[in-house]
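User: My advisor, Dr. K., asked me to get a structural model of this assembly before our group meeting. I'm new to this, so sorry if the format is off. These are the inputs:
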Amino acid sequence: MDRFVFLTFDGLSRGAVYAAFALALVLIWRATRIVNFAQGAMAVATAYAGYSVSAATGSYWLGFGVAVLAGIVLGTVTERVVMRFVDHSSPLNEVVVALGLVLVIQGVLGMIYGNEFRPAAAPFSRDAFTVGGVALLSRFDLFVFAAVGAVVAALALLFTRTDTGLRMRASAFAPDVSRLLGVNVGGMLTLGWALAAAVGSLAGMLVLPTELGLHPNAMDIVFVSSFTAAVVGGLDSAVGSVVGGLVVGLLLSYVSGYLGATVAPIAVLVLLVVVLLGRPGGLFGRSAARAV
Amino acid sequence: MSGLVLDRIGVRFGGLVALDGVSLRVAPGRTVGVIGPNGAGKTTLFNVVCGFVSPTGGSLTLDGRPLRPRPHRLTRLGIARTLQGVGLFSGLTVLENVLVAAPATPGERAATHGVTAAAPGETAATPGKEVAPHGVTAAAPGETAATPGEEVAPHGVTAAAPGGKAGGRDRAMAALERCGVAERAGDLPGMLPYALRKRVALARALVSDPRILLLDEPAGGLSAREIDELRELIAGLSCAVLLVEHHMDLVMSVCDEILVLDFGRPVAHGTPDEIRADEAVADAYLGAAG
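Assistant: The format is fine. Below is the predicted structure of the whole assembly, which you can bring to the meeting.
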């Protein structure tokens, strides 16, 4: 029972990060119908920037802020300079361009920082509080929950309560009609990419201290898990991505806890296959209806 | 020259002449109809005004200034358009659909693009009253309990509300009320009958307080009774209207002047009575349509 409780909290903590990362994927998918396969690499790049600043200044939080800010900049640049000019006639074009970005970013990071793991410090202790001998949560876990909760709440407010959020949704639905109604669709797309990349950077900063550390490929496995989370929840559903993230986090935690860490990646793939067979649109996806 | 002026507009798609030497003036407050058989270039003409199609010849001016339309700047210039298909956002509620088009601050457009309310032809325009800038004076048809007095009230509220979100919401609701669909504000467009969806689309075009409203086949798919209601709604607008429509009775009854296109060329231009009497029109249009 102790073990179950511990694994549950650990899984929820990891799941929260997957949720944030999946949410970033969903943001871009909903706005542009692109799965941003470069998101992991972009998050690593901004984490390197953040930790470089932390190392130079001695302040973790300054580096944290720089990482998120770098996410906004990198997202903006990626949309304005690269993605805007990709031909949208075939969905494969965007995938190829995104994978190309991954290679470029990881190559550049390797040239600057080298291809070995560098330590990624956590701002809070990762030692779990124990209650009656049962290990529950660490301070860092609490920080993860608070940060992800704040991001989810902020995005929910943005999309449901503000005019900008409404215009972003409208641009995603029908760009041409939105233009006619006076919406700056290009600006909305850029904003969507900037927000998504910032959320991805945040997720990176939250997950890297729990992994082996900084490495150009450090987010690859996180990306796979988060992508699974987004698809399981339904790529069109923000709520689904959060639920999917928590489900994947719990699943990974239980499987590696009870069956062994080597089985965990297989469990993720099994989950993906089962959900896609049962509900191809994801758990929260709306089934496509044909208008008559 | 005030209003929207098209001077010898030409559009070619490769070797195909879509429009050739089309001139037209939409003066403030006037309702101008564009008719012609299918493929005559009516929608292309709209697309030129909206910036979706660049003319290969001729020029556009708005209030005497050269106009190079860009779709997302149109509403700021005071031009709004409805689409031939309804074009509502299926995932947004009726109210949200209208809110997308509601500018953040009511005075934005007027402030940047000169006088709108004092335009000639707007009979009801009295300074200081909210009715005039809002483009509509008459109560929306189909609204059972609406009296003109009640209709005016929400506009006053709108003007008093501080800019930004609350103001936008009020104005969106006022536009829906004007078009008689306010009670469906919380529904998704897919739940509405076609005729009501067209009203929502009209409300969405009206919410930006256009000086010039472009209506692309507003009567398409409507019943005779619904067309009568639409007629009253259009007749009650104080803004200028450019109307593309196949429904002859509607065009003849609401338009001050009519331009007839055939294969992209202007065939006739005049008042409804002149157009009715014009033989070239009968040949080109009525003859072709049977």
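One thing worth pointing out at the meeting: Residues 124 and 221 of chain A are 24 Å apart (CA to CA).

User: Perfect, thanks a lot.
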